[in-house]
Write a structure and sequence with these properties.
The structure holds 3 protein chains of 3 kinds. Chain B is mainly alpha-helical. Helices cover 76% and strands 0% of the residues of chain B. In chain C, helix 3 runs parallel beside helix 6, helix 3 runs antiparallel to helix 8 and helix 8 packs parallel to helix 9. The chains are: A alpha/beta, B mainly alpha, C mainly alpha. The interface between A and B is large, with 44 and 30 residues. Chain A: Keywords: ATP-binding, Cell membrane, Membrane, Nucleotide-binding, Phosphonate transport, Translocase, Transport.
Chain lengths: 256, 284, 266
């Protein structure tokens, strides 16, 4: 499904760099990346859909290397990769249904994008997705009037509108209260189990990772230090992932 | 529903905090800059003021005559050489001129702004367009109108094109600035979904831009109204400005000037009210 | 087709209808205004004629080099007048704004009077100022200075007042609670905090006044505006081009200096 091989990235000597990161994501599973902040979790996620161009390595998505694609091919590949953000990144002045429909614009023409032209089938699907995340009655609400948890659910519906094979979630619950956290994580888990979508999540809450993950990847200082089933995530392993580290520049990488 | 609860995670953000924590060196740089600028301005002003009053100039007499004229203007406004209807028409012309130039200017400037915002355009294009616009902005509107009145002949065409020139340069800058203020995450998100540039502009940038687009365009309308009057007077391009020029420097009739100033003030009042309403709408 | 889809379709049709309506209204207003003014849209397509004409005629030639001295002198004069007018207006405005700001004003009536006064000054067209002043003060720099002064006074009073009001009532009250007198609150608490904002307004106004000084000069027969008019009307386009060039250089350098100061202040 998705395989990352020997991904290496450096921001000219900055702490947020990756060294020889390799892992793979299986379909229908929740894979969680944990690690201290600044360890490079976000960099990995953004390298997968090439929002950040990496320096070296291989990112195989459906057996094609994302790094070798030209602009048009990359755009087409991105259409099948959903992404969810900590700050939701919705278009707040627009309604929930419009935001969800944005998910299917990637495959449509310029004209459709400019004049918001959607097929009836797509409109129906968008509404169903909103109902699926429990926001059916908020379809015509401006997103700026929704709560954080609701915004994130609109974000999920938008990602699903892309009919993604994989969903990348960059700290999806970092800005949410405990109740919304449970709602959002339950939805993400459900997508993997029932829809067979691969879900790759960046988290810094270990307890959540333990509860929801099938597979856990531990990152510390840009390196993979744990890559195994979630049930094998022992306290010793966690301590190892979150240990304080003196990196090459000698400055302290601060722990979570 | 539970109200927004975004407080849980943002622990890394340092609070805007006490001003004293600004490094001393930094505070000093500010203080020195302000002090130096003030000294230079004061020096220039003090050197200039005495040289401005010409020799044998009767300042007292001038001031008396000035207050006299102000009194005539505001306390005894009435018409002599023209009719109220004519003036109303002239005011309408100036308003139309301001409206038309703002409309054309904002439409053209929108596309220039798209091509010169850091969010979408490459650096060389941003720098190129912005410097070109800075040069156009540097030339006063009235000079543009004068130049075009030679090419097109004196009249509406020259006035519209001349004022539009300046409007485009001004609006391009402020529109591009408001696009630059958009969070980069929004555009990145749309790119991550594989959207084309046209779709990103239409679906993400425009919805966010509408409030600032409206308020800047309105501000430019106010400026264009003032410019329309000035151009009418200085380049003979018609409108209430031309009437103002005729009454004051041809007939020397300040009673009449008073009427026109009152008319312009009345329209300005209308604009203030609209701008107040607009602000309360866009601030929702 | 189920009712949900119909509802979505209605939503999009409504949005589209609103947009179309706005475009149609603006289009009709455009046509109406064009007819009312006698403006021909195709002249927009002839904009390049103006540029071409400008380039052909406004290139300073050998003869126009003789005007260099006069132009530089007038340019410098115009700049000085613009700066002096802004500075003087800023001083008076600061006083008016402190007395008039809602957070500091001794009486709310005073605040409203000052507000109305500044609005009046701002909205009287600069043409009217120039003409009235020209009549009494005749053709000299003082006229231009005063015209700019009154406009700037109206503008800066409003701007300063808003800056002071943004500073907030709580901070003023907190300072007063420490037992500071009215003057101490202003001098020790308020002014240092808002100095940067006031400075950027002043710089902005200087930029603006350098440009407006050309217009005022044209109307009152002084400074750079006057000599432009003189050369232009007497068809000495080379010299007029030189004036335009010098104005560009002046305005752009004032803008650059003010950007530099702005960066030092941030």
């Amino acid at each position: 499904m998705l395989t990352v091989n020997h991904l290496t990235k450096s921001y000219d000597g900055e702490k947020m760099s990756l060294t020889d990161v390799s892992f793979s994501v299986r379909p229908g599973e929740v894979t969680v990346i944990i690690g201290p902040s600044g360890a490079g979790k976000t960099t990995i996620l953004r390298s997968i859909n090439q929002l950040i161009r990496d320096d070296d390595g291989e990112i195989l998505f459906d057996d094609t290397d994302m790094r070798q694609l030209n602009r048009r091919q990359l755009r087409q590949a991105r259409c099948r990769i959903g992404m969810i953000f900590q700050n939701y990144n919705l278009i707040e002045p627009l309604t929930a249904i419009e935001n969800v429909l944005h998910g299917c614009l990637g495959t449509k023409s310029n004209l459709a994008g400019i004049f918001s032209m959607y097929r009836n089938r797509e409109k129906e699907e968008a509404l169903q997705l909103l109902q699926k995340v429990g926001l059916g009655e908020f379809a015509y609400q401006q997103c700026r009037n929704l709560s954080g948890g609701q915004k994130q659910r609109v974000g999920i519906a938008r990602a699903l509108m892309q009919r993604p094979k994989i969903i990348l979630c960059d700290e999806p619950i970092a800005s949410l209260d405990p109740k919304s956290t449970v709602t959002v994580m339950d939805i993400l888990r459900d997508l993997a189990v029932n829809d067979g979508i691969s879900v790759l999540i960046n988290l810094h809450q270990v307890d959540i990772a333990r509860k929801y993950a099938d597979h856990v990847i531990g990152i510390n200082n840009g390196q993979v230090v744990f890559d195994n089933r979630a049930k094998l995530l022992s306290d010793v392993a966690i301590a190892n992932i979150y240990q304080k580290n003196v990196n090459t520049e000698g400055s302290l990488v601060h722990e979570f | 529903m539970i109200k927004p609860e975004n407080q849980v995670s943002i622990p890394t953000r340092i609070p805007a905090g006490p001003r004293l924590s600004i490094p001393l060196r930094f505070r000093d740089r500010r203080r020195v800059t302000i002090l130096l600028t003030l000294i230079v301005l004061a020096y220039v002003t003090l050197m200039t003021l005495p040289t401005m009053i010409p020799n044998h100039f009767k300042l007292g007499a001038a001031l008396v005559s000035f207050t006299e004229n102000i009194k005539i203007m505001f306390l005894q406004p009435h018409l002599a050489n023209t009719t109220f209807v004519t003036l109303l028409g002239a005011l309408g012309q100036s308003i139309l001129l301001a409206f038309l130039t703002t409309l054309i200017g904002s439409a053209i400037a929108f596309f220039f702004a798209l091509a010169s915002t850091r969010r979408l355009a490459p650096t060389y294009l941003v720098l190129g367009i912005q410097s070109f616009m800075a040069v156009i902005r540097a030339i006063p509107t009235v000079l543009w109108v004068l130049i075009y009145s030679v090419v097109f002949g004196l009249g509406a065409n020259a006035a519209v094109v001349g004022i539009t020139f300046h409007s485009v340069a001004y609006l391009t800058k402020v529109y591009a600035d408001s696009m630059d203020e958009l969070s980069p995450g929004i555009i990145e998100t749309m790119q991550a979904m594989g959207l084309k540039k046209s779709a990103i502009i239409r679906q993400a940038i425009i919805p966010y831009l509408i409030p600032s687009y409206l308020s800047w365009t309105f501000i430019r309308f106010e400026i264009n109204f003032a410019d329309a009057i000035a151009v009418g007077a200085a380049a003979g391009a018609g409108g209430i400005g031309y009437q103002l020029f005729m009454s004051s420097s041809f007939y020397f009739n300040f009673h009449e000037v008073g009427v026109m100033v009152y008319m312009i003030l009345a329209f300005a009042l209308v604009l203030e009210i609209i701008s107040y309403r607009l602000r309360s709408v866009t601030h929702q | 087709m189920n009712s949900d889809v119909q509802q979505i379709n209605r939503f999009f049709s409504k949005k589209r209808f609103r947009l179309t309506l706005i475009i149609v209204i603006l289009g009709m207003a455009y046509v109406g205004a064009s007819i009312g003014l006698g403006f021909q849209t195709h002249s927009l397509l002839n904009v390049q004629d103006g540029i071409a004409w400008l380039i052909q005629n406004f290139i300073p030639n050998e003869a126009s080099k003789g005007y260099w001295n006069e132009i530089l002198q007038q340019l410098f004069r115009t700049f000085l007048v613009a700066v002096a007018a802004t500075t003087c207006a800023a001083i008076v405005s600061l006083f008016l704004a402190i007395v008039g700001a809602k957070t500091l004003t001794p009486a709310i009536t005073v605040s409203w009077v000052i507000r109305a006064f500044s609005s009046l000054l701002r909205n009287i067209p600069i043409v009217a100022w120039a003409m009235i002043l020209l009549f009494s003060f005749k053709q000299n720099d003082l006229t231009g200075f005063l015209a700019l002064f009154f406009m700037t006074l109206g503008f800066l009073t409003r701007a300063f007042m808003e800056t002071i009001e943004d500073f907030g009532t709580e901070k003023v009250q907190a300072l007063q609670a420490t037992g500071a007198t009215y003057l101490q609150v202003i001098a020790q608490g308020l002014l240092p905090e808002i100095a940067v904002a006031l400075m950027s307004w002043i710089l902005y106004m200087i930029e603006n006044n350098v440009r407006d000084a050309t217009l005022v000069g044209l109307l009152t027969g002084t400074g750079i505006g006057f000599i432009f008019n003189l050369y232009f009307k007497s068809l000495r386009y080379g010299a007029a081009g030189l004036v335009v060039l010098s104005v560009i250089i002046l305005v752009v350098s004032v803008e650059l200096i003010s950007n530099l100061i702005g960066r030092l202040l941030s």
